[in-house]
Amino acid sequence: MLGGLLGFWVLGVGPAFGQAAGTAVSRPANAYFDAAMAEAARLYEDLESEQALAAVTRAKRLARTEEERSRAAIYEGLVLADLGRREEARASFRAGLLLAPGAKLPAKVSPKVEGDFESVRQELAAVRKPVDAPVRPPVVEEKPVVLAPPQVAAVPAPGVDLKADARERGTRRVPTVSWVLLGTGVVAGGVGSILGLQSRGNVNNAREADLSADVSGHLDDARGQAVVANVLFGTALAAAVGAVTTYFLMGESTEGGR
User: What's the pTM?
Assistant: First the structure.
């Protein structure tokens, strides 16, 4: 009897375990994703939104292709919309439609949720359209080339000495008034110098005189000569300043009149 039981286990139960083990090894990877998505759909239909969200989160981790990631993201958007998390739902819709622009909602939903889903699809289409449009090369408008006229050097008129003309322009004329004032200043300065020397001589004579009357006379002469010399020196200075002033003022006006 024991041998029969052992034979039964070897012939019957053994192959069953071997078959189960072989099935587990050869099971395709997307079967786990499908199972998680089926669980999320069942919980969503039973209004177990929190558990459905956890199931679809597992499905997102098990996704291997863009189509599977798109399905999981869109279904996640449905569950989030059912939980009242509208902005997060739109973000999940956007992620799913980016991977599969032609995807559709996997279940019947309210018009509000369907409107959000389609509005996200339109936003992505509007952004994608300029990118997909072919870029045309810019049209370059050819402009006629305008050649500048040749520059001709100016030819001086016959009989005109350009160097002499330049020298004449560069020479500044001294006005007559400046010469007169300058001469007056020189004469006044010379006379003042002479009187100043005479005044100093009278002072020396006063120091050497013995009589008080002679001393007073020399000092009076020295004072008068000193006063006149100072006046002449002032006149010479004023004349020099006037000569310089009239040179610049009248000299500029003379050049401007040419």
Answer: 0.42
